[in-house]
Hints:
Low-confidence stretches: none
Largest sheet: 4 strands, parallel
Helix content: 25-40%
Radius of gyration: 19 Å
Distance between the termini: 32 Å
Strand content: 15-25%
Order of helices and strands: EHEHEHEHEEHEEH
Strand order of the largest sheet: 3-4-5-6
Amino acid sequence: MHYTDRHRLPEDTERELGLTFHETAADMVPHCDVVTINAPLHPETEGLFGDKLLGQMKRGAYLINTARAKIADRDAVDRALRSGQLAGYAGDVWYPQPAPADHPWRTMPHHGMTPHISGSSLSAQARYAAGTREILEAFFAGQPIRDEYLIVDGGALAGTGAHSYSVSK
Length: 169
């Protein structure tokens, strides 16, 4: 299994899981038959899967996007499917949403789109509610909020946000 991330995993974790790290998506995609997009949308990822990167993928590879629609260039995905560069595209995210009637993903070949509902199980909703309650209780008690809940603090990226996002230049 191949992966890329802004933060590389420890070597022992890579060995244990059989992972191969690549510095960039462009370095990774020529090695993969299936590429899944699992990234936040920010300036470095918006439009990442455009004509250039899709053209570097193995001909006949599959692209799965369950992250954010704007990470994949709408028209480039359509062209890659119609040309056979991609064998298939699957996703649960659209841009814009709701997609207009003339959106090319409605008619492109070899694709499957599903509703973006991964977080709506009862157990997921219970976790969200418990986390929200914990954040509110900490805030009103004047206590620090756990880093894994933070995206921004004092106007700057913090906690998970600092780990996952980049600042627009």
